[in-house]
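Changelog-adjacent note: as of this version, every example in the card shows the full chain rather than a window. The one below runs 148 residues end to end.
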Amino acid sequence: MFGRKKQFQVPKITTVIGAGTVIKGSLHFEGGIHIDGTIRGNVTAQQDELSTLILSATGLVEGDVSAPNVILNGRVVGNVLATGRVELAANARVSGTLYYKLLEMEMGAEVNGQLVCQEETDLASLPKQQARSEDAPVQEEEHSSVAD
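Full-length structure tokens:
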């Protein structure tokens, strides 16, 4: 019926990172994760329809986030790649590029970087493109001096 939105089902939370907890290193999860603490490293989810990262107002991720669904009310210093849905609550702060398929943003949320709406096919190829650009050799310019 017109005017009715399909409700997003948040999966059962299987992992909680409590306030005051600091994790140094990358984190891989599946299902639902709720972060109240700090993660200094990349956070990557199993790429299924239900995997969801929830970052509370006290949560901080210093690294890239890659998950199908992302609900932010805290800070991310890094890029966010969501193959499904992104919800930015009023206290959300992202310093980096936000790639999304669907975006919901409350007044007060901030993105200090780019907002990039992607098609499903674009999102699937994105990490490969980034990896290629990081592995590419740096070309140095040749400078020659002319002596008179």
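Structural remarks: The chain has one domain: 13-121.
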